[in-house]
Design brief:
The protein is about 60% helix and about 0% strand. Helix 6 runs antiparallel to helix 7. By secondary structure, the protein is mainly alpha-helical. The radius of gyration is 16 Å and the shape is globular. The longest helix is centred in the C-terminal third of the chain and has 33 residues. The protein has seven helices and no strands.
C-alpha cells in the first residue's frame, strides 16, 4: 500500500472498534476530510479533534486510522486530483453505498464546521458546500437500486471535485498567499 492508498473499509472499521469509535469508516473519513479541507491541523490525534471529544485516544503509528490520515492528507494535496472517498466497494448494494455516501457528506460537514473558523469562502466553494449539504440531507428511499449505479458514480466524482475545491479555497489558497508575503 502506498502512502496515497486509503486503507480498506474492513481495516478502518476494525481500528475504529478497537478505539471504541461509534462511527462507520465513511463517517470517519468524511469528518477527517472535512477537517483537513477546512484547514484543520494534520495531527496524529485527529479523532479527538474531528469528533470533538478530547477523551478519544490517538491511533498508533501505522494503525489503519493513522494510515487513513496520512493517505487523506496526501490525496488532498495530490496535483493529479487523486483524492478518493472511503466508501463500500461495488459488491455492496447501491442503496447501502448511497447511504454510506450520504453519511460521508454529513460527517464531512461536521468536520468542516469544526475547522473552518472565520474563513471567507469563494462563491464556488459556497456552492460546493451547499451541494454537499443537500447530499447530506438525502435519504435512502430516494435511491432507485436499478437506475442509480451510474448516478452514484457521477455524484461520487462531483463530491471528489467539490472537496478538492473546498480544500484549495480554505487550505491551499491561504498557504500560497502566505508564501507570497
Amino acid at each position: 500500500m502506498s502512502e496515497t492508498d486509503l486503507p480498506g473499509w474492513t481495516d478502518v472499521a476494525s481500528a475504529a472498534d478497537r478505539l471504541s469509535l461509534a462511527s462507520t469508516p465513511a463517517e470517519l473519513h468524511g469528518a477527517l476530510c472535512g477537517w483537513l479541507a477546512a484547514g484543520g491541523a494534520d495531527v496524529s490525534a485527529w479523532p479527538a479533534l474531528v469528533m470533538a471529544d478530547d477523551a478519544l485516544p490517538a491511533p498508533a503509528q501505522g494503525d489503519p486510522l493513522d494510515c487513513l490520515r496520512d493517505a487523506s492528507v496526501s490525496q488532498l494535496g495530490d496535483t493529479d486530483f487523486g483524492f478518493q472517498l472511503l466508501l463500500p466497494d461495488d459488491s455492496v448494494p447501491v442503496t447501502e453505498r448511497a447511504g454510506a455516501m450520504f453519511d460521508w457528506c454529513r460527517a464531512f460537514l461536521g468536520g468542516f464546521g469544526l475547522a473552518v473558523a472565520d474563513k471567507k469562502l469563494s462563491e464556488e466553494a459556497e456552492e460546493a458546500l451547499a451541494d454537499i449539504a443537500n447530499l447530506a440531507a438525502a435519504r435512502i428511499d430516494d435511491v432507485d437500486p436499478e437506475g442509480d449505479e451510474e448516478s452514484l458514480a457521477e455524484i461520487e466524482e462531483y463530491l471528489r471535485m467539490a472537496v478538492l475545491l473546498l480544500h484549495a479555497d480554505c487550505t491551499l489558497g491561504p498557504l500560497h498567499r502566505q508564501r507570497l508575503h
